[in-house]
TrEMBL record:
It holds the Pfam family UbiA. It is found in: Plastid, Chloroplast membrane. It is a multi-pass membrane protein. The keyword Transferase applies. GO terms for cellular component: chloroplast membrane. Its main location: plastid. GO terms for molecular function: prenyltransferase activity. InterPro entries: AtHST-like, UbiA_prenyltransferase, UbiA_sf. Belongs to the UbiA prenyltransferase family. This is Chalcone prenyltransferase. Keywords: Chloroplast, Membrane, Plastid, Transferase, Transit peptide, Transmembrane, Transmembrane helix. It comes from the Eukaryota. The chain crosses the membrane at residues 112-137, 149-175, 196-217, 223-243, 250-270, 282-304, 330-350, 356-376, 388-408.
């Protein structure tokens, strides 16, 4: 386009000079004569050049536009500057403190949930829930009893006891912080993952919620069970005169027996029997078996839990059976009690008049007894991890037992 505009004029040199002057100012005439290039020869073309100048003056805006488009000039720089200004705030590497704060909050919340999970001692928590379900199933006499009414009754028993389980686990840890720093430093209070004040708040609020929900539901067997748990586990843990029964091995065993063999099976069986099904309070064959079997198991729990804790118990003057008799002897006493419990279950199955109950009870308990004996021969009593693994195995076998107990008929 530039060659087309210049080629339309005969005097190319004057045209180039004129365009250059137009670039520097609006008054081209003054610039032209001020340069000193005016000659007599140029006067011959004065009129022609004047006409050409007038034409160019009319075309000046378009030429200026053409020149700016060719040279790039201010227009390009301005566009480039706008681009840079707009691009700078969009940088993906810019630090955002709000995003960092959100990540820290989420990480702290996740860590608290993990610590709270450990604070609730999940194996005993699950055991308590399954114990209630098992006791409720013991009250079932026929298949038609498995109805929406049954599930509502189970839920009414489970929810208050959920908070009671947190109270039971928490109050023991609150009273044993210093011992746990030696025996179980991984626990939330002993490790500092949960502060003592937070632990007190969790325990107190859980106890209040448990008793309040039990009162709202209005089942007296359930209320009796909740109050019993409150009293016996406070007596077991709190270090005040006449309490702290865990220091005495006989009283400690009585606490475990009262909780597992009496309160759970009897309290929640009668919750379903009298409050939900509106039946008379009778001791049935499955209930008697549940009480007998759990009597053995409760003593095992009371003895076995102290086997790995000799160091801390000795430092704080707790005279457990493991301290008095030795770890190995107490361990094999526990194995003997477990085998006796499975022996009672086999006897109940053999004497049952119901064929399917006889088969399931005998075979089921024979398998569980074999597992206990096989694992007992492989345990290393010098290794705390090995002892803890066997303790968890006892709980898992109890979980299975909770579903076998209602099948005894």
């Amino acid at each position: 386009m530039d060659s087309m505009v210049i080629g339309s004029f005969p005097n190319i040199s004057s045209m180039i000079t004129t365009v250059g002057n137009l670039r520097q100012g609006k008054d081209c005439t003054k610039n032209y004569y001020a340069t000193g290039y005016y000659t007599p020869k140029a006067s011959l073309h004065k009129r022609k050049i004047q006409k050409e100048y007038n034409f160019l003056r009319v075309q000046q805006p378009s030429l200026k536009h053409l020149y700016k488009g060719i040279e790039g000039g201010h227009t390009y720089q301005e566009c480039n500057r706008k681009y840079v200004v707009k691009a700078t705030p969009k940088s993906s590497f810019e630090y955002d403190p709000r995003s960092s704060d959100r990540k820290n909050i989420l990480a702290s919340f996740k860590n608290f949930l993990d610590a709270f999970y450990m604070f609730c001692t999940p194996y005993s928590f699950i055991g308590a829930m399954l114990n209630i379900i098992s006791a409720s199933l013991v009250a079932v006499e026929k298949l038609s009893d498995i109805s929406p009414l049954f599930f509502i009754g189970v839920l009414q028993a489970l929810v208050p006891n959920l908070f009671m389980s947190i109270y039971v686990a928490g109050i023991n840890q609150l009273c044993d912080v210093e011992i746990d720093k030696i025996n179980k430093p991984y626990l939330p209070l002993a490790s500092g993952k949960i502060s003592f004040t937070t632990g007190v708040f969790i325990v107190a609020s859980s106890l209040i919620l448990s008793l309040w929900l039990g009162w709202i539901i209005g089942s007296w067997p359930s209320i009796w069970a909740l109050i019993s748990f409150t009293v016996i586990w406070a007596a077991y843990s709190i270090n005040v005169p006449l309490l702290r029964w865990k220091r005495n091995p006989v009283l400690s065993a009585m606490i475990s027996f009262a909780s597992f063999a009496i309160t759970f099976p009897i309290g929640y069986f009668f919750h379903m029997q009298t409050f939900v099904f509106k039946r008379p309070a009778l001791f049935t064959r499955p209930l008697i078996f549940a009480i007998t079997f759990m009597s053995f198991y409760s003593i095992v729990f009371s003895l076995f839990k102290d086997i790995p804790d000799i160091e801390g118990d000795q430092a704080f003057g707790i005279q457990s059976f493991s301290m008095r008799l030795g770890q190995k002897r107490v361990f094999w006493i526990c194995i003997s009690l477990l085998e006796m419990a499975y022996g009672v279950a086999l006897l109940m199955g053999i004497t049952s008049s119901c064929l399917w109950s006889k088969i399931v009870t005998v075979l089921g308990h024979a398998v569980l007894a074999s597992i206990v004996w096989y694992r007992a021969k492989t345990i290393d009593l010098r290794n705390k991890a090995s002892i803890a693994s066997f303790y968890i195995l006892i709980w898992k076998l109890l979980y299975v037992e909770y579903f076998l107990i209602p099948l005894v008929r």
